[in-house]
Design a protein that fits this description.
Keywords: Methyltransferase, Transferase. The chain is α/β, with parallel strands linked by helices. The protein has a single domain, classed as Vaccinia Virus protein VP39 (Rossmann fold). 39% of the residues lie in helices and 17% in strands. Strands 3-2-1-4-5-7-6 form a seven-stranded mixed β-sheet, with helices on both faces. Strand 1, helix 3 and strand 2 form a beta-alpha-beta unit.
Length: 225
């Protein structure tokens, strides 16, 4: 991965809780975060004594490199958000400026925790569809804004291989959102559900208390039968 291809954008623990309908019991599990990027979820959870391991290819870079990249791309992302504001619901965030402040706060919290977290093994370089973990290493795997969202960039076969790998390393998997960037349900969702049924994986689609991108208000929960 080249850093100049990365557009860092970090979400908070409260967003994770709402996106994935995380209960107190869920938070107490050994959690794997897929594609967490510069989210503050790991830092916030660790500060409260919970166990989270985050995996992302951007963790190959140093905190200083990521900080520079965040600075280089922030204004560009904010202009894009302004241009596309009608594609989002402005309830959790009053406007684009508040969103930007929250995103930057999350990313700064991530940066403050990052180097220590790497030394502790909490931030590991890696990516789907192959993860560096033993079977059932985690109680819960969370995949945020990767699968389904980038259906134009990631193939159907990639999605199926990723699902197989996630259910291998975790007792339960949750994926959010289920829509592509255009706000429509991913064309791969039905195929994933068919695959899961054939593979003995229980699948449930649930509405969540998080609806920022229009159309994105459901999470897919997967567990082995």
């Amino acid at each position: 991965m080249k850093l100049d291809h990365v557009v860092p954008w970090g979400r908070t623990r409260s967003e994770y809780v709402n996106m994935f309908t995380l209960t107190d019991a869920d938070l107490a599990k050994k959690i794997l975060g897929i594609g967490d990027g510069p989210a503050s979820f790991n830092a916030e959870m660790t500060a409260d004594g919970y166990s989270v391991t985050s995996v992302d290819p951007i963790y190959a870079f140093s905190a200083e490199q990521l900080k520079t990249r965040i600075s280089d791309t922030y204004d560009v992302v904010m202009k894009q958000m302004q241009t596309n504001a009608e594609h989002y619901n402005w309830t959790a965030f009053r406007d684009v400026d508040e969103l930007g402040r929250e995103r930057m706060r999350a990313m700064n919290q991530f940066l403050d925790d990052y180097e220590e977290g790497k030394q502790q093994g909490r931030y590991q370089t890696g990516s789907l569809p192959v993860l560096p973990f033993q079977n059932r290493s985690f109680g819960l795997a969370l995949c945020s804004h990767l699968l389904f969202l980038y259906s134009d960039q990631l193939s159907e076969s990639f999605h199926l291989a990723a699902i197989q790998e996630l259910i291998r390393v975790a007792d339960e998997v949750r994926i959010f959102p289920l829509v592509s960037l255009n706000g429509q349900l991913s064309p791969y969702l039905d195929r994933v559900l068919v695959y899961c049924k054939a593979a003995g994986i229980r699948s449930e689609i649930e509405s969540v208390n998080y609806h920022f991108q229009k159309g994105a208000f459901q999470v897919l929960r997967l567990t082995s039968n």
